[in-house]
């Protein structure tokens, strides 16, 4: 995507000037090793970005599973089986309640 933006927005003359500046700054002898190093950095960046993306996708799937499980448990907890007195179970472990003291 970034390369598409660069290639669409820069014309031939701008690329020529950029290439000339790179050759002067790096030097023609060091240009292949600099290009190799840039390629290695780019590959490392892509690997890390892909790993980060994979972790985010796994986290999203885990959150969706947890939300579905919580919804299922809530539905089971509040299910009314015809007797409204059993819709919400009585809590006896609440401090200060008549049954909890």
Describe the structure.
With 101 residues, the protein is mainly α. It has a domain at 28-75. The chain contains three helices and no strands. It has helices spanning 2-9, 12-26, 31-77. The longest helix is centred in the middle third of the chain and has 47 residues, at 31-77. The protein is rod-shaped and about 85 Å long. The model has no long low-confidence stretch (mean pLDDT 81).
List descriptors.
101 residues, mainly alpha, 69% helix, 3 helices, single chain
User: What pattern of helices and strands is seen along the backbone?
Assistant: HHH
Cα(first) to Cα(last) distance is: 65 Å
Number of strands: 0
> Class by helix and strand content?
mainly alpha
- What summary fits the major beta sheet? none
Computed over alpha carbons, the radius of gyration is 31 Å
Shape: rod-shaped
Helical proportion? 55-70%
Strand content: under 5%
Poorly predicted ranges (pLDDT <50, ≥5 residues)?
none
- How many separate helices? 3
Task: Determine the mean pLDDT.
Answer: 81
């Amino acid at each position: 995507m970034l390369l598409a933006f660069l290639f669409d927005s820069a014309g031939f003359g701008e690329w020529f000037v950029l290439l000339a500046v790179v050759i002067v700054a790096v030097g023609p002898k060091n240009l292949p090793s600099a290009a190799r190093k840039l390629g290695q950095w780019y590959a490392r960046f892509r690997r890390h970005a892909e790993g980060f993306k994979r972790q985010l996708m796994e986290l999203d799937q885990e959150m969706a599973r947890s939300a579905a499980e919580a919804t299922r448990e809530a539905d089971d907890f509040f299910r009314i089986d015809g007797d409204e007195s059993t819709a919400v179970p009585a809590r006896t472990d609440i401090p200060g309640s008549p049954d909890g003291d």
